[in-house]
Amino acid sequence: xxxxxxxxxxxxxxxxxxxxxxxxxxxxxxxxxxxxxxxxxxxxxxxxxxxxxxxxxxxxxxxxxxxxxxxxxxxxxxxxxxxxxxxxxxxxxxxxxxxxxxxxxxxxxxxxxxxxxxxxxxxxxxxxxxxxxxxxxxxxxxxxxxxxxxxxxx
Length: 154
What we know:
The protein is of the alpha+beta class. 52% of the residues lie in helices and 12% in strands.
């Protein structure tokens, strides 16, 4: 066990040296608590796809207005960003405001996997059931209607 731990540490050091020699920057990690502190027009951060962005200088330039950005300030903005359907140019511009990434423990995927709805302790299991049950019921109903009309004409 001790040898394995030592090999892992050695690998981590070798990786760090490789990144230094080749100019590969390691992304700065921010906790969600750190991001939450930056939620004003004079200091505005949010996360999209677990990357942290400082958009303070972009507030006045944003085509959708500053209110849209301020609403997302200090938190996860992935869903809102994707719902709008931003262009490729917007996604490229976004990279210039990236300052780091969300710490592993605070990542968006880890937070959303524990969400539940108030009406269902299982979370989205009910939604999964309804997503195929309703179309199935409609298809069966359509089949009966079709059979009735086709059967009545023969």
